Amino acid sequence: MSAILPGATIGILGGGQLGRMMAMAARSLGYRIHVMDPDPSCPARFVVDACFEGSWDDARAAADLARGSDVVTLEIEQISLDCLRAAERFAPVRPGIEMMRIIQNRILQKNWLRDEGFPIGEYRAIQDETEVAPSLAALGGKCFVKSASGGYDGRSQVKTGFDEQTPDVWKLLGGRPCIAEKALDLDQEISVMVARSPRGETKSFPSARNHHENQILVWSVIPSAVPQEIEQKAQQIACAIADRFELEGLLAVELFLTRSGELLVNELAPRPHNSYHASERACVTSQFEQAIRAVCDLPLGDVAVVQPAAISNLLGDLWLGHEPRFDQALTVPGVTLHLYEKHTPRKGRKMGHLSAIGATPDEAVARVLEAQALL
Question: What transmembrane ranges does the database entry give (predicted)?
Fold first, then answer.
């Protein structure tokens, strides 16, 4: 198997901020970039060679993208399998279609993790409305119920059992199959990013510690500074999942660490991940460069931490009252601003992030939150 060398063209299905940052890394390595996205003014549009307009199920647009590409990858897992098959007729698609089929559906994903022997929390698959009540009861009532497909950043999710009123889960989730997950007594949430090339070389980044509010990532820091035995176990789990899938590309493995010391797999994301944006400043190789190296079958980059770094997401809410005071935020030592060139701020939409370095992970988090507060 031969590497796809600089000068070749990489096709990316999806042109959001992840596609944009992958494209910027790829351009630094000397590649040409084509993207496909429903929005002709998507964030990646301004840094790529060509942008194909097409919805996530537009197989013709995906084929057009792939026809001029030497390899095709993705930045969003909502791409339909028909699109991936259409693209595969013209170029290698990495990650592979079978892996995507499993990960795209939360029920299939959880069943696969269970069947492969990976540690997960209790859950119930719900295929119709009659299964809602018994499933919630079996899990003790306090649950997170998620649509089987689609939705992220807290979308297509409903919490139950946290107050006296039980919402109409089936109706709120659009009357579609869903999965109920038992609420856990969490100590913290971490993630591990694994890269694996077609030739089988595998490297995993040190784990990131993540803080969510309303199911949206607020801040993240690398390294996580969890105890060494937890770090080793997290790395083993993530790399084993990547190997079982025969991953070609990136895989983010989100993990729950419970107060009782259990380490459980939450969800998988076969692409660059919000929790590893800090890798641009923390690690020798960023997740975005590593994604390009992996799908092009280049030698994988060094993932060692050079300095602790943290990120804080900038949501559209910040723009709704006044223009954010970026000049004030940038007075904090070690802080850098990253904006995605999204033109329409709205509540909950990720518009950019702040990053900060520090002597320790805690100092990096403190600095990025201080800068956030100044906005």
Answer: none
Tens of pLDDT, residue by residue over 165-175, are 677 889 888 88
252 is in an annotated binding site: no
Percent of the chain exceeding pLDDT 90 equals: 88
Structure tokens at 183: 């609420």
In the structure encoding, which two tokens stand for residue 241, read together?
């999942």
What are the DSSP calls for 74-115, one per residue?
ES-TT--HHHHHHHHTTS-BSS-HHHHHHHHBHHHHHHHHHH
* pTM of this structure: 0.95
Same domain, 196 and 151: no
Beta carbons within 10 angstroms of residue 176's beta carbon: 14
CA 12 to chain centre: 15
Q: What is the mean pLDDT of residues 288-309?
A: 98
**Number of domains within the chain:** 3
Is 106 annotated to bind a ligand? Reply is yes
Q: Is residue 156 part of a domain?
A: yes
146 is in an annotated binding site: yes
Q: Which of 98-102, 127-131, 147-151 has the lowest mean pLDDT?
A: 147-151
Q: Which residue has the higher pLDDT, 16 or 149?
A: 16
Query: Is the predicted pLDDT of residue 2 greater than 90, yes or no?
Result: no
The last residue of one of the domains, among 167, 182, 197, is 182
**Does residue 88 have a known ligand-binding role?**
no
Is 183 among the annotated ligand-binding positions? yes
Q: In this structure, is residue 104 part of a structural domain?
A: no
For the chain, state the CA radius of gyration.
20
Q: Consult the annotation and say whether 267 binds a ligand.
A: yes
189 annotated among ligand-binding-site residues: yes
Closest residue by Cα to residue 269 from 286, 284, 287, 292: 287
Mean pLDDT within 60-66: 98
Both tokens assigned to 128: 């119709």
Domain that residue 282 falls in: 186-373
Which token pair is 191?
A: 């993630």
Sheet harboring 178-182: ordered strands across? Answer: 123-126, 178-182, 143-147, 157-160
